[in-house]
Design a protein that fits this description.
Length: 206
């Protein structure tokens, strides 16, 4: 891709470093910014700088926050004894968008993955175990992705808190309504069979 301006080329290069942004898309975005009023571009640049310089991670759950303790943990209407264990901040946002969960969270910051050089020490597992040992948590809900790394992480945490008197559960996994069995992967289908419910019960839920 040939550029008539080194400034344009540099801007396109930096924009293309974002995930999911190729050089053509980056060029389109940069040219769009050039057409915008100066104030709008300055606001964008300022918000990105503020994000890097001022963002914090909640001292309790490790979620992104503007303050030392995030709004979820600080909310007295939330059930702090019910903790949902997630991989990253996007999972918190996804669950919050359902409006169905009134507990709190613990953000691990990833999953155990030896292939990628990520071990338990690279995640926030120790602080989770410390919270469990304090005796204030009644139940942990494992809400990690259904992958080998996710299952490995769940099992590792389970072993770490075994015997500490806390209940553990995992989000339900199975065949989505409307999906054909032939298109389901083996792991999903297997878990659906293992977690089967009485046929009469399935009729009542319809």
């Amino acid at each position: 891709m040939d550029f008539s301006s080194k400034l344009l080329e540099n801007a396109v290069y930096e924009m293309s470093q974002l995930p999911g942004i190729g050089k053509r898309t980056a060029l389109r975005l940069v040219l769009h910014l050039l057409k915008q009023p100066d104030q709008r571009t300055e606001n964008l640049a300022s918000s990105l700088l503020d994000l890097k310089e001022k963002i914090q991670f909640c001292s309790n759950c490790h979620n992104i926050s503007d303050t030392l303790v995030c709004e979820i943990c600080a909310n007295t209407k939330r059930d702090s004894s019910l903790v949902c264990v997630v991989e990253d901040i996007r999972d918190v946002m996804a669950i919050e968008n359902t409006g169905q969960f009134r507990g709190t969270y613990h953000v691990l910051g990833g999953k155990i993955s030896p292939m990628e050089g990520v071990g338990p020490q690279d995640l926030t597992i120790n602080s989770l175990v410390t919270k469990v040992k304090k005796g204030e948590i009644k139940e942990l809900i494992f809400a990690l992705s259904s992958t080998m790394e996710g299952d490995t992480t769940n099992f590792y945490i389970y072993k770490q808190i075994s015997g500490l008197g806390v209940r553990t559960s995992t989000i339900a996994r199975g065949i989505a309504v409307g999906d054909e069995l032939e298109y389901a992967d083996e792991v999903t289908l297997g878990r659906s069979i293992l977690n089967r419910v009485p046929f009469e019960g399935s009729l009542k839920s319809n």
